[in-house]
Each structure stands twice: as C-alpha cells, then as structure tokens.
Amino acid sequence: MFSHVMVGSNDIERSKRFYDAVLGVLGAGEPLRNQNATGHTRLFYRHQGNTFCVVQPINNEPACPANGGTVGFQCQSPEQVQAFHDTAVANGGQSIEEPPGLRDAGGLGSLYLAYVRDPDGNKLCALYRMPKPAA
C-alpha cells in the first residue's frame, strides 16, 4: 500500500545518528544520502522492501511533527521492541505514553508496543503482534 514514509528534520546529521542507531536494531543499514534539486538533504533507509525517509523541509520552514501522526515499525519480537525503545532513548529520543509492554488491542489481538519521539518530535511506535493462543 505504501511506497515510503517521510519525516522532516531540523538537524539532518542529528537525525542520521538517531536513525542509524534505531533502525539498525531492525536490521536497516546505512541510508542513501541524496540532495534534491533545491539542495535539501534527504536520507533514504531501505529494508525488507520498505523505505523510510528523513528530509530537510524543501519550503525552508522548520520541520514539525504531525499532530496525531505516528510512524509504526514492525518488530520480530518483544525483545526487539524493547531494544528499539532503549536505543531510541539512548540516542536522543524520548520515551512517551506507557512504558514498553503488552497491550490488548481488542479484536486486533495482543500487541507488544513502545512509543518514542525522535529528536525532532516525530512519534514512533515499535510494534510486535503477539501470536494468537492455540484454541
């Protein structure tokens, strides 16, 4: 459904350090660094057919997080969710909402979640869908 997800940054080098560490937990490597026609830097992290981008806003206005917006990252285990969270906090992110842990998502089953904000205030979620118990 999605081709990519993009967030803005006011300090692209700070964001690179943050996302190199955090997305490294998920197995993403170094981003492709690109400058668009206006000279603004963009970082493209590619992993498992997905693309996550960090950009300097091309309108030269300050980057700001979306009110109500969240970028969710799929994890392979509760331990990976915790590592994502801890790495984010250790690299300038902020833990938000409840501590990482198991949540009942009603008809969606149980989820192991962690929420953080990146150094620019973008809200990130690390998510693992718990296996449904055998009937």
From TrEMBL:
Q: Which keywords belong to this entry?
A: Plasmid
Question: Which InterPro entries does the entry mention?
Answer: Glyas_Bleomycin-R_OHBP_Dase, Glyas_Fos-R_dOase_dom, VOC_core
Q: Does the keyword Cytoplasm apply?
A: no
Q: What residue stretches are annotated with the VOC domain? A: 1-129
| A UniProt-annotated Pfam family | Glyoxalase
The name this protein goes by in its record: Glyoxalase
Q: Which source organism does the UniProt entry give? A: Aquabacterium olei
